[in-house]
């Protein structure tokens, strides 16, 4: 199911990702979900695509997700 806002994202995603990363996740998930309509793995593909999109812009250091554009990354 597509997510209308970041508040609709699963709790683990909202708890661990910063707001901008949540935006990236939500937008990537929604786009992938729509693109794979009718596929029985539609939701799984959406989540995998969303995580890949987040990992292009953020890196996990310890328990925190840090934007890759920050110095030292």
TrEMBL record:
It holds the Pfam family ChaB. This is Cation transporter.
């Amino acid at each position: 199911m597509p997510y209308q806002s970041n508040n609709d994202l699963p709790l683990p995603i909202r708890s661990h990702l910063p707001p901008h990363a949540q935006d990236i996740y939500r937008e990537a998930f929604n786009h992938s979900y729509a693109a794979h309509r009718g596929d029985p793995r539609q939701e799984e593909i959406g989540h995998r695509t969303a995580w890949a999109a987040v990992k292009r812009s953020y890196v996990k250091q310890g328990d925190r997700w840090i934007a890759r554009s920050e110095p030292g990354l």
